[in-house]
Amino acid sequence: MLQLLALGATGALVVQQLYIAIYNLYLHPLASFPGPKLWIAFPVLRYIAQCRGTFDQRMVKYHRYYGDVVRFDNDTLSFATAQAWKDIYGYGHGQNQWPKLEFRPPNAVDHIIFSNDANHARFRKALSHAFSEQALRLQEDLIKGYVDVLITSLREEAENDSNVDMTMWYNLTTCDISMTYLFRLCGSKSCHLVPIFSRDAH
To answer: Domain ranges in the chain?
Structure first.
């Protein structure tokens, strides 16, 4: 009797999963959008890819194959165009803003990412002054100082006929600038990552 019940429950579960898979593939409102059929039919595969750390690489591959819009879950679309960001998260389209993150931490405090429309406008107004043309011009000397350090270090590399990874050097420079603004670190040249790395490389 227990075996029959177990077989019946297993059969019902299999039928249910098959029905869900068929619905997701052919009857779902998003069925017309292209995407990996296994991920659409069985969304757990997407989470397995996330746990394995291969999700982003797979999404790049899918966008190259399917185009700018990819359905990668039963009810989720991925857009790879700048216009999509403006259409979804921009202003002036007469709709409430969509959340910019899929998951919100429990008991998260409202800030510009998680806030509703009213609070988002308030946060945006408070932060907008820091990104005005006048405010950015005031930072020109500081940024120019870091760029000068970068150019000096690259000139030393060139004089030594060294191979240069420009991506790494740009990352070091932007990290210097970010740490200065965020944490008030690197107040002197001896703290700059660029010259430190240059010294360590030789």
So the answer is: 2-131, 139-201
